[in-house]
Each structure stands twice: as C-alpha cells, then as structure tokens.
Specification:
With about 150 residues, the protein is of the alpha/beta class. The chain has a domain of about 100 residues: 3-Layer(aba) Sandwich (Rossmann fold), CATH 3.40.50.300. Helices cover about 45% and strands about 15% of the residues. The protein is built from five helices and five strands, in the order ββαβααβαβα. The strands form two sheets. Strands 3-4-5 form a three-stranded parallel β-sheet, sandwiched between helices. A two-stranded antiparallel sheet has the order 1-2. β1 and β2 form a beta hairpin. The longest helix is centred in the first third of the chain and has 18 residues.
Length: about 150
C-alpha cells in the first residue's frame, strides 16, 4: 500500500493525503502571490535541496507576475556541519548573483545569522517598496507575517 492510498477520517470527513497536499499547495500559491519577501532555505549538506531553489524562484516569479523581481534571500542552512558540506558558499553566492538576491549561510542549531536573515529581508522589503510602490488600487491592509 502506498502513501497515496491511505486516508483518515476526522469529524466524519474523509481526508486523503492527496487532498491535503492539494489544499497545502493552494495555500502556498496564495501566500506566494501576496507575499512581500521570501526566505528560500536549503541545507548545505543536501545538494538536492539547493537544486530546488531555481524552481521555487521561477514559480514565485510566475505566480506574482513579478517583472521587477521581488525581495528574496537564499539561505544555506546547517553551516555548523562544515565536515558534511556538499554545497559550497561560492555556489550559493553564484546563484544569488544570478537571481539578483542576497545570500547568507545560517545555522539554526548554534544559532548563526537566523535573526539577521529576518532583519535583512525586512530591510529589503522596505527598499523594494520604496523603488516599486504598488498601484493605489492594489494597496490593502497586510495581516502580518506568515511562515510556511
């Protein structure tokens, strides 16, 4: 039996993993469309996670219809595991240069640059808004920060 074949019943409602995944995907698209800034995190020990950054960037750019780009920081996480490193800082910086965004390495464990990453994205969002103010008809009240 595969994961997709399993389901659960909650409050007399059938919930399958696929419908749950679809619901999550819809929520992600909605957040990407309305998000002002993005932290894209990969593990320096997992090259596969690094290879997904461009896909994420392209998807958000399409969803936001962002001609002028959008505030993004690429974060190489787990920099405390230097001996297990598979993605170099130079590779992360090269991709950030190509996507015209900021690059930082972080570690949630020790912690290193975690607070700085959030402070930096807020500064970049403010700078972006100054350079590219939204049209008057697009102004709306924001409800806060969402972490997915």
């Amino acid at each position: 039996m595969s994961f997709a074949d399993r389901s659960a019943t909650t409050n007399r409602r059938l919930v399958s993993p696929l419908s749950f995944a679809f619901t999550i995907a819809l929520a992600l698209v909605a957040q990407q469309r309305t998000g002002d800034g993005f932290l894209c995190v990969y593990a320096i020990t997992l090259p596969h996670s690094f290879s997904k950054i461009r896909d994420f960037y392209d998807h958000v750019r399409r969803v936001k219809d962002a001609e002028n780009g959008f505030p993004l920081i690429i974060l190489g996480n787990k920099c405390d595991l230097e001996n297990d490193r598979k993605v170099t800082p130079e590779e992360g910086q090269a991709l950030a240069n190509e996507l015209r965004c900021t690059f930082m390495e972080t570690s949630a464990k020790i912690p290193k640059n975690v607070d700085e990453a959030f402070h930096t994205i807020v500064r970049e969002m403010n700078k972006f808004r100054e350079k590219h103010p939204p049209p008057a008809d697009k102004l709306k009240k924001k409800t806060g920060c969402v972490v997915l």
